[in-house]
Amino acid sequence: MEEIRRSAPSVEEAVEAALTELGLSEQEADVEVIQESRQGLFGVGAQEAIVVVRSRVRSGVPTDDGLDEQAEIAAEFLEGLLERMGITASVEPNLEDGTMYIDVIAPEPDDEDMGLLIGRHGQTLESLQELTRVVVAQRSEMRPRIVVDVEDYRKRQVDRLSARAREVAERVAGSGREEALEPMNPFMRKVVHDAVAGVSGVESGSEGEGPDRHVVVRPRR
């Protein structure tokens, strides 16, 4: 079983680095957190997060140990949350292109409640995602590997970002000059890494910390 050990200022950054190097998605890997990060006092006693990421791909087919359980927990939580909010919608797990989406679908087109759940530039959806991941982590005692989506907003976002990342990668391949994309969350950075991996002559890496972390596309060394 292929595995890799990496450290970084946060668990997310360490996992991202390991997944990128292994060429895996979160659904294709098991993550063991060896050490959580700690800021320390005035820089004294600070420590980086350490993780071990293991490939779960056997004979070319990823196993789904625990993923169905996580999807069930997430769907149950979201159904209860929507009910308390007075929002009518169906919640359905959907495994697509190796990603387990938890889809929130309105009973009618152009439902205003769905716009409220997405929020301006997807900010409310991002908060809903993080809240759901916290619940999944607590109840399953596993690192969450689900993605919450509302009316396919996230999937359209992924398609647009993948196309843009390929354009940037092809431009870098032609010019020989690296380019940086804007800061993104770990899920979106992984989308960029996957898209860049499909373009020959270039590579990608993440730089920066916290909310400023972004992907840089550069000629392959």
Comma- or semicolon-separated keywords:
alpha+beta, Ribosomal Protein S8, Chain: A, domain 1, three-stranded antiparallel β-sheet, 41% helix, globular, single chain, GMP Synthetase, Chain A, domain 3
Describe this structure in words.
The chain has six helices and eleven strands. It folds into three domains: 1-61; 67-151, K homology (KH) domain (GMP Synthetase, Chain A, domain 3, 2-Layer Sandwich); 152-221, 2-Layer Sandwich (Ribosomal Protein S8, Chain: A, domain 1), CATH 3.30.1370. Helix 1 (11-22) runs parallel beside helix 6, helix 2 (67-85) crosses helix 4 (123-140) and helix 5 (153-175) packs across helix 6 (186-197). It is α+β, with helices and mostly antiparallel strands.
Judged by helices, strands and strand pairing, the structural class is alpha+beta
Low-confidence stretches: none
Topology-level CATH name of the largest domain:
GMP Synthetase, Chain A, domain 3
Distance between the termini: 27 Å
**Order of strands in the sheet with the most strands?**
1-3-2
Helix percentage: 40-55%
Largest sheet: 3 strands, antiparallel
CATH architecture of the largest domain: 2-Layer Sandwich
CATH superfamily of the largest domain: K homology (KH) domain
The CATH class designation of the largest domain is: Alpha Beta
Number of helices: 6
Strand content: 25-35%
